[in-house]
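Running low. Any example?
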Amino acid sequence: MSFGTRIRDIRKARGLTIKEVAEKSGIAYSLVSNMENDKANPSLMTIYALAKTLNTSLESIFAEDKSVAAGPLVRVEDRVLFRDSKGLKSYLLCNQQYESFETHFSVLEPGVSTKNSPDLHNKPGSKYEFAYIISGKVEFSIDGKEYVANPGDSVCYESASSHYVRNLSEKPSEILWLMMR
């Protein structure tokens, strides 16, 4: 079952229309519709808002054929892939929603940049972003200034700033993210 089909099934089980979900969540009607038709790649913040509106868990939205157990421990083989596009894969690191933060692990392929992916930088409700470089060499552009981060380095900035990342390595870069609200 696809991501969009799961969202549609949960919405219908709650007896809600797309319009009602859009109004209650603050998500544009067209985006909710596109998500249900697997034509959108929403930010994690958008998915959190959708889950809250549908009174469901992230596990329910992301679960595929396997059962994702809720609880404090997330095993590497049980991580939920929530973004897989344009050389960027991102995985949830928590099986629960938290009001004050979100955290995920990303793998950025060599040479890939998020510069032309504005949907990755639109995190409604997020105030700060923290990134810890696990492997690779990553360039962060924040308000027009470039910073090069290596393994063990970290970067923190306001989410509202103009920003993107680019992998400068010849191998995939791995980044741990924490978004604070």
